[in-house]
Each structure stands twice: as C-alpha cells, then as structure tokens.
Amino acid sequence: MWAHRExxxxxxxxxxxxxxxxxxxxxxxxxxxxxxRLDDTGRDALASALPTQLATLVRDSAPLRRNDDKTPFLETxxxxxxxxxxxxxxxxxxxxxxxxxxxxxxxxxxxxELPDDFRDLFAAPGDGPPPDRAASAALxxxxxxxxEEVSAALAGLPGWTGDVGGLERTVALPPGIGRxxxxxxxxxxxxxxHHAVVVEHVDGTTFRVWTHARGTVTDLDVELARRISExxxxx
Length: 235
Fold this sequence. Notes:
The protein is an alpha+beta fold and 235 residues long. The chain has helices spanning 4-15, 24-35, 40-48, 52-60, 70-81, 85-102, 104-113, 133-136, 147-155, 175-192, 219-233, and strands at residues 161-163, 166-171, 197-201, 204-209. The chain folds into two domains: 4-136, Uncharacterized conserved protein DUF2267 (Globin-like, Orthogonal Bundle); 147-233, Transcriptional coactivator/pterin dehydratase (Gyrase A, domain 2, 2-Layer Sandwich). It contains eleven helices and four strands. Strand 3 and strand 4 form a beta hairpin. Helix 2 (24-35) crosses helix 6 (85-102). The protein starts with a helix and ends with a helix.
C-alpha cells in the first residue's frame, strides 16, 4: 500500500506544488473522479493501492450513470480545484502517472476500464513549468476575506446573503428568459475560471459561491457574485 506522505510528495513533485500537502485535494479530486468511472472490481483494485483515507473516498465514490470521456472529467476536476482545464490536466497527469510508477498493475487495471482518451493522463507531465505557473507567478491568488470584509461586500450586493463560508442569492427565473440568463452566467464563469453552485428548487434558483480550494469566501467570490447580479438584474 502506498504511504500517504509518499503519495503527496510524488504528486507535488510532478505538479510543481509546494508544500507537498498542497497535493492532497488534487489527489482526492482526481482519484475519486477516476473511481466513479470504474466498476466494483476496478474501484477495489484502486482503493487497495491507496492510503486508508483515500481508499475510503474511492470505495465510497458513487458510480456515474455513464462512462464519460476525458473532457467532462477534467472539467469537474477544474471546477473542484478552481483551476483552468490546462492546470486540471497537469494535476491529473501528476496523480495518475505517480500511480503508474508506484503500482503498474493497478494502473493498468484502472486504465483498462477508462475510455481510450484517458491513456495520456497516465504519462508524467512534460518538462518545464506547469501550465499557469509561469503566467500566474506574478499574480496574487484569491484573498481570503474576514467576516467584516464579507459583511461590507454584502452591503454592495443586493439580494445576496452569507458569511465567510459562502455567499448565496435566490432568484425566480422564468423558463425562457431563465435559460438565456443561465447561459450568460455560464459564460461569465468560464471567463473568470470560477463557478457558482446552482441549486434549482420550488422557490427559484439559488446561486452559491465560495472558493472551494480555500473553503472560504475570497475576493474572487465577491466579484463572481457581482457579475452574476449584473446578468440577472440587467437581463
């Protein structure tokens, strides 16, 4: 069985992450995403090669109704990690190539159950800085907000409520207009590479935003909330 620290160090080295603990969430996202595309035998084989915590997540993962190809998989990883698709691809390669080096037979079993376009994800990332690393090195990342800063931000976001754990707004979207507004919001999300969690219920549509990688509200969430409101209020 792969030791937890060794796994994180292997993934961190391939993905250019520092410290190694920064590899924890990418490893979880990638391995659970893969496990959901496996049958029971493949899921058990993968879990048996992993440390206890990851093995439990893999065994408890809910199978997909259909075996989606690589693109939806990478989109999910990107959304969960607040990363670009290019960065999600590199992280997936870092995790799966580390698995292939550590336990070739298990990697072969997993790979055989996935669509053919997953095969290149089991190859280590190429030389040079990881995607987004060089371009983003000079840019500051999202800034965590204090409770006071969140309250101040909400004062400028009519209709939104929340705290440091997340912001949300519920609106009633008429069927025809609602679809158009949702499409425009999706384009905003793609442009920002940041996404809201959308929940449909009898009272309307709720948009919830927080920075998943931080587990808290950041300035990026405030900006996304503002842009969502622009679409809704000017739609």
